[in-house]
Amino acid sequence: QLRLVESGGGLVQPGGSLRLSCAGSGFTFGSYDIGWFRRAPGKEREGVACMTIGSPNYADSVKGRFTISRDNGKNTVYLQMNSLKPEDTAVYYCAKRTSLDQTTCVPSYFGSWGQGTQVTVSS
């Protein structure tokens, strides 16, 4: 069964760091793009960081602060989140790209969503 499971969320203070993990199973992990997305209360789900054509693509709001990486041997994609801001507060999801003819980091081109992990940035 194809599964993606997020972990690593929590409560951090502004300026703090957190590393999220997305563990995959049931498919050849290294053959697919994995993206990180988030949904803040009352807002639409948005792309945060995706591996597009083998290189990372970041939302402008997180560029320079977040880093996506992957360890195919562990079937895991990570999202290192530094210099966190209150506006980063959201449920963070990972997903596998399903539209192989698309390269943009938008939710509609991804599927097999994990359950999400809550990230709260607050003093």
Please describe what this structure looks like:
This protein has 123 residues and is mainly β. The chain has no helices and eleven strands. The protein has strands at 3-7, 10-12, 18-25, 34-39, 46-52, 55-58, 66-71, 76-81, 90-97, 110-111, 117-121. Strands 2, 4, 5, 6, 9, 10 and 11 form a seven-stranded mixed sheet that branches. A hairpin with a 2-residue loop joins strand 5 and strand 6. It is globular. The model has no long low-confidence stretch (mean pLDDT 93).
Span between termini: 40 Å
Number of helices, where a helix is a run of at least 4 consecutive DSSP H or I residues: 0
Q: How much of the sequence is in beta strands?
A: over 45%
Order of helices and strands: EEEEEEEEEEE
Helix and strand content put the structural class at mainly beta
Mean pLDDT: 93
Q: What is the helical fraction, as a range of percent?
A: under 10%
Task: Supply Rg.
Answer: 13 Å
Number of strands: 11
Give the biggest beta sheet: 7 strands, mixed
Contiguous runs where pLDDT drops below 50 for at least 5 residues: none
Based on CA inertia axes, which overall geometry fits?
globular
Topology:
Elements: E1 3-7, E2 10-12, E3 18-25, E4 34-39, E5 46-52, E6 55-58, E7 66-71, E8 76-81, E9 90-97, E10 110-111, E11 117-121
Parallel strand pairs: 2-11
Antiparallel strand pairs: 1-3, 3-8, 4-5, 4-9, 5-6, 7-8, 9-10, 9-11
Outline:
With 123 residues, the chain is mainly beta. It has strands spanning 3-7, 10-12, 18-25, 34-39, 46-52, 55-58, 66-71, 76-81, 90-97, 110-111, 117-121.
Which short descriptors sum up this protein?
11 strands; mainly beta; 123 residues
